[in-house]
Amino acid sequence: MRNFFGIAMLLALPASAVAQVGHPPQSSPFRDIRKGHTFTVMGGYFKGNGGKFGIGPHGAAVFGARYDIRSASALQIGIGVYHGSLERLVVDPFVVVANRVKGPVKQAVTFAELALQFNLTGGKTWHRLAPYVAASGGVAFAGSTPTDTSTYSFGKKLYLAPAIGFRYFVTDRLHLRAEARATFWKLNYPPTFQQVPREDPTAPPVLAGSSTREWTSSRWLQAGLGYSFSP
Questions:
Q1: Measured between alpha carbons, how far is residue 101 from residues 54, 93, 200, 202 in Å?
Q2: Mean pLDDT across the stretch 138-151?
Q3: Mean pLDDT across the chain
Q4: What is the 3-state secondary structure (H, E, C) of 11-78?
Q5: Cα separation values, 18 from 4, 31, 115, Å
Q6: Are 180 and 219 in contact (CB under 8 A)?
Q7: Which of these, 15, 112, 144, 145, has the minimum number of CB atoms within 10 Å of its CB?
Q8: Rg (CA), the chain
Q9: pLDDT of residue 208
Q10: Above 60 in pLDDT, residue 64?
Q11: Which residues contact 149 (CB under 8 A, 6 or more apart)?
């Protein structure tokens, strides 16, 4: 009978009082992420090997910004523009093997991309943290390298960059972002890499075989400071 009266009293309580049996709202580890738009200033380091010959741009700091729109509780779409003066090697296919590789030299590269981000905690943070997975795709534009006379040109490259990361919300508007991504693009080597060097016709060419293309991957670590606002 005592248990019966206890259950009856519990059912008679208002819903708000019953909800307090768990985490009180003010002490819950979950907080809503502000809806709207976000602008983030980014900086990071682009690290890779530049392909088998090291002539792809790699190994330098990259800076930029991104603009995000949160389209659903767990999804947001963003655009980003980044720029860096990356390093690369120069391979001269016309000279003797001992003198083929020069550098590193600098090559300016600009990245323009579209990003799709999935927040693992939905529309909320957990202890101010909001981890996510993301995928970005875009175009990389590289400047010229006058010291490279091999006829190789990086030009414009489509790239894909899957990523994992997290945001830490200092306030409901201000947050820190950290991200690790892998960047994939395809290098195209010129026909001169398959020719024997003029200075030593007995030496092998730079590139043996019939394929003049190579997919490469580079690590790209980023961190940034973001600000959320409503339009």
A1: 9, 9, 15, 18
A2: 92
A3: 88
A4: HHCCHHHHHCCCCCHHHCCEEECCCCEEEEEEEEEEECCCCCCCCCCECEEEEEEEEEEECCCCEEEE
A5: 17, 20, 42
A6: yes
A7: 15
A8: 26
A9: 83
A10: yes
A11: 92, 94
